[in-house]
Design brief:
CATH superfamily of the largest domain: Medium-chain alcohol dehydrogenases, catalytic domain
Structural class: alpha/beta
CATH architecture of the largest domain: Alpha-Beta Complex
Number of helices: 10
Radius of gyration: 20 Å
Helix content: 25-40%
Number of strands: 15
Largest sheet: 7 strands, mixed
Strand content: 25-35%
Number of domains: 2
Distance between the termini: 10 Å
């Protein structure tokens, strides 16, 4: 089969389109013929920072038709359309993934949109669950225009929360008002915390959902209410963030690490993700697609996925 892979960490041009051996599903895995690949933030970070194993195919999310199954798999049938998650293997014509991290695609839902749901919107739903966001509360979404951020904005707004989002481009924040954003904060010249205090008249937010990390999280904690929850999803801002432990103690802040992958197949996350497919089918969850590329142009697809100012996911099609 054909796949897009890289042999050393680096920029998009490290990706090459090559012939590789077909995957063989393990006893608990599905084998799918890939029809759509969603480029996730973790794919970009991994390609940039992590050296791959020999002939290891990158990529988290892919959807397609089941063409094989391990002997222990139950609840799936050959020929069904599913979307899958695994830590590797999506950037290929065939993909093996654990059945526990695979989801049936409802009839009538675009398979490209379906490929995006477990990681992006799924992470948003799980983060809001962990944060215990309640109707009437105020949530601050750091990185509101990204895939997870945009889904968080929508889900929080549907819950009845006031949604404040940060971004680097005012035009991007303006575009996502139609998704439920109440207030946009442009980061750069002035700290986000300073702008939020001015916006809220000195009040603070109940919940932080952080897709950025680093200094953005440290700054945001200054406007988190006493006893509030901050959920950390991304580390684009750096992995060695220093948080004042005394400040956490004084203000009774809770910082929760949210990595959905290991928990995706558990009962509650799986239920939340399954509900998202139906929401997308009914139009209650909007998943914009920015661009589609052939898998053979994976370098260009990754380059586009790294561009700021986009709204929506970048897909690849084998």
């Amino acid at each position: 089969m054909k796949a897009a892979l890289y042999h050393e960490a680096g920029g998009p041009d490290t990706l090459h389109y090559e012939d590789v051996a077909d995957p063989v599903p393990a006893d608990d895995e599905l084998l799918i013929r890939v029809e759509a690949i969603s480029i996730e933030g973790g794919d970009l970070v991994g390609r940039r920072d992590l050296a791959p194993g020999k002939n290891e195919i990158p990529g988290y999310s892919a959807a397609g038709e089941i063409v094989g199954m391990g002997k222990d798999v139950e609840g799936f049938s050959l020929g069904q359309k599913v979307t899958t998650f695994h830590w590797k293997g999506s950037h290929a014509q065939l993909r093996a993934a654990p059945a526990r991290n695979s989801f049936l695609i409802p009839d009538g839902l675009d398979i490209g949109i379906a490929s995006t749901i477990p990681v992006g919107p799924g992470t948003a739903a799980w983060a809001l669950h962990l944060a215990k966001l309640a109707p009437g509360q105020t949530v601050l979404v750091l990185g509101a225009a990204g895939g997870v951020g945009l889904a968080t904005v929508q889900l929080a707004a549907k819950l009845g929360a006031r949604v404040i989002g940060t971004g680097t481009r005012p035009e991007s924040l303006e575009r996502i008002r139609e998704y439920g954003l109440n207030d946009g904060i442009v980061v750069g010249e002035r700290p986000a915390s300073e702008q939020i205090r001015a916006l809220l008249g000195g009040n603070k937010v109940d919940v932080i959902i952080d897709t950025i990390g680093g200094d953005a999280l440290v700054d945001a904690l200054d406007v988190l209410k006493d006893g509030g929850n901050a959920v950390l999803i991304g580390v684009f801002g750096g992995r060695a963030t220093k948080i004042d432990a005394g400040r956490l103690l004084k203000h009774r802040h809770t910082v929760i690490g949210c990595l959905l992958g290991p928990e995706m197949g558990d009962e509650v996350p799986r239920r939340l993700i399954s509900e998202l497919f139906e929401m997308a089918k009914q139009g209650d969850l909007r998943v914009p697609i920015d661009a589609r590329f052939p898998l053979s142009e994976a370098a260009s697809a990754h380059r586009r996925a790294e561009e700021r100012g986009r709204i929506g996911r970048v897909l690849m099609v084998p």
